[in-house]
Write a structure and sequence with these properties.
Blueprint (H helix, E strand, L loop, with lengths): L1 E6 L25 E8 L4 H15 L3 E8 L7 E9 L16 E4 L19 E5 L17 E5 L1 H8 L3 H12 L5 H13 L6 H13 L1 E4 L47 E5 L9 H5 L5 E5 L8 E6 L9 H5 L5 E5 L4 H5 L10
Parallel strand pairs: 2-5, 5-6, 6-7
Antiparallel strand pairs: 1-3, 2-4, 3-4, 7-8, 9-12, 10-11
Helix pairs in contact: 1-3, 1-4, 2-3, 2-5, 3-4, 3-5, 4-5
């Protein structure tokens, strides 16, 4: 499924504009300037791409294209939103995916585990990712040595401002890309929400301004030389290429699912000292992520709750809502917390 927007300066003069910024000159006028938003459903990546493209075309005089690709539209499903910009008088490809981005914006830090997330990043490109201050994910060592790496706690800022991460990222993007006119992007962001959600306009503006300043540039992260290679599509199996006997070497199985990217900032954490092992949480958990074992308290309980396998926890927090003793608490998810507290359901299969 996809959605597309493309336009140019011609024909846009009738649209309302608060101001006309100076003529925009892209960093490499002879090339497209391309941005790829890597996200999951529910964080607003499509809207961010729409706002950026609209501001660039209608208010900054550029020619631009935007479209998004996404799967089932369920919470946690992968979303990619593409923005391609060029001079106002230059033709543009309207629906080709961005394979060699100048900027990659990662809405959920768990997506960094997949090499596809930052595939194709240019050697002088920029990666912006969502995470609070703390340990730098080791996966980022695969980035170009000369790439700019920026961390911003978009989720934390959005919660504080009662906004969404996309508004924060747009502010950070404007701060890092001087050719983007901040007022134009902010105006487009406000107009995006003014009709259906006017109450969100002020909150989005606050989140945008926070994103402009509350980010951290990381040094010495990447180790790769030159541009990263675009992600190659997996070959399709056909009559000549299928495995002998038609066997599927990687069969689907729910034991290998990973719902990490479904969590948006919160996770349940068990306080064993408060738990009475009643099992109510297990009755309401839709993903069977609670880990039970033999009790070792001398007979008071036959079974006890050992913890949560966060690989399968999507952060719905039904267990927290149903717990009669508050043994399960809603906790802000910080980098590495789920891995530190995780109790594996299938330790013999998945580490």
């Amino acid at each position: 499924m996809s959605s597309a927007l493309t336009s140019s300066r011609a024909g846009s003069s009738a649209l309302p504009t608060r101001h006309l910024p100076p003529a925009v000159v892209l960093p490499h006028p002879e090339e497209y300037y391309e941005v790829r938003f890597e996200s999951i459903g529910g964080l607003g990546a499509h809207a961010a791409g729409q706002v950026l493209a609209t501001a660039s075309v209608v208010r900054m005089g550029l020619n631009g294209a935007h479209f998004s690709s996404y799967g089932s539209e369920k919470k946690g499903s992968l979303i990619r939103s593409y923005v391609r910009l060029t001079a106002g008088d230059r033709p543009i490809r309207t629906s080709a995916p961005v394979e060699r981005p100048d900027v990659i914006v990662v809405f959920h830090a768990a997506l960094l585990r997949s090499p596809a997330t930052f595939a194709g990043l240019k050697a002088d490109g920029t990666l912006i990712y969502n995470a609070p201050a703390g340990v730098v994910p080791p996966e980022l060592s695969a980035l170009p040595r000369t790439a700019r790496v920026v961390r911003v706690d978009a989720t934390g800022i959005a919660m504080k401002q009662a906004s969404r991460p996309n508004a924060v990222f747009l502010g950070t993007l404007c701060a890092l890309c001087p050719f983007l006119d901040r007022s134009s992007v902010l105006d487009a962001l406000s107009e995006e929400f003014a009709g259906k959600h006017p109450e969100a306009v002020a909150a989005n503006e606050s989140a945008f301004h926070a994103g402009e300043s509350e980010f951290e540039e990381l040094r010495g992260v990447g180790t790769a030389q030159g541009d990263l290679a675009p992600m190659q599509a997996e070959p399709l199996w056909g009559y000549d290429t299928q495995p002998v006997g038609g066997i599927l070497p990687t069969p689907g199985n729910s034991a290998w699912n990973d719902l990490t990217t479904s969590r948006i900032g919160w996770m349940p954490v068990l306080d064993s000292s408060k738990c009475i092992h009643c099992g109510v949480c297990d009755l309401v958990c839709p993903d069977f992520c609670l880990v039970w074992g033999e009790a070792d308290d001398g007979g008071k309980f036959e079974r006890k709750l050992n913890g949560v396998d966060y690989r399968y926890c999507k952060g719905c927090l039904r267990c927290v809502e149903s717990c009669p003793t508050q043994a399960l608490a809603k906790t802000a998810e910080t980098a590495g917390l789920a891995d530190k507290l995780r109790v594996p359901l299938f330790p013999e299969l998945i580490a």
